[in-house]
Amino acid sequence: MIKKIFWFLMIVVVLYTVGVFYSPAMTDAIAEKTGLVSYNNFIRSFKGTLDGVATDIPTKDELIEWGKAAYSGALDAKDKFIDGVGEAKDTIDTVRSTLSGAESTYKDAKETFDKAKDFVEGASEKIEKVKGALDDVQQLSEGITNTE
Q: How far is CA 130 from CA 117, 119, 135, 136, 143, in A?
């Protein structure tokens, strides 16, 4: 039963679609009453597209021109790609040289810091020795004043 209803609906849709071209006045009247105006317009525009595709077959010369244009476009794309790769390489080389300079500056700064640290440590040791000597002198001085 469902198959019969399905096939009946399919036959109605196909006959209506064919009627859009064979009896446009009648199908437009039906479409206005049933709200199928957009369906009629779609069917007509779809047929127009199919007609255009079927009848606008390019000639041999047009195909050759399209091929030449595609080849030229491919060559342009290749040249742009090569230029882009060259620019990227130049940028990478610039960054590499900048980083090399930054590394050298970092090493110089580290060496200066290490020398300053060594100097401060050496000065601290000398200050401790001087402080020890001053403590010894003070104890000696206190020992001399206590014996008098």
A: 20, 16, 8, 10, 19
Q: What is residue 10's predicted lDDT score, i.e. its pLDDT?
A: 92
Distance separating alpha carbons of residues 136 and 142, to the nearest angstrom: 10
Q: Where are the beta strands (DSSP E) in 17-148?
A: none
Length of the chain: 148
DSSP state, residue 148 = -
CA 53-55-59 angle, to 5 degrees, is 100
Amino acid at position 90, single letter:
D
- Confidence band, pLDDT 50/70/90 cuts, at residue 7: very high
pLDDT tens per residue, range 82-122: 998 889 898 888 888 887 877 888 888 888 888 888 888 88
Phi/psi at 34 (5° precision) = -105, -5
pLDDT in tens, 50-61: 877 777 777 888
Residue 147 pLDDT > 70, yes or no? no
Q: How far apart are CA 77 and CA 79, in angstroms?
A: 5
Question: How far is the C-alpha of 47 from the C-alpha of 32, rounded, in Å?
Answer: 21
Strands (E), 11-140: none
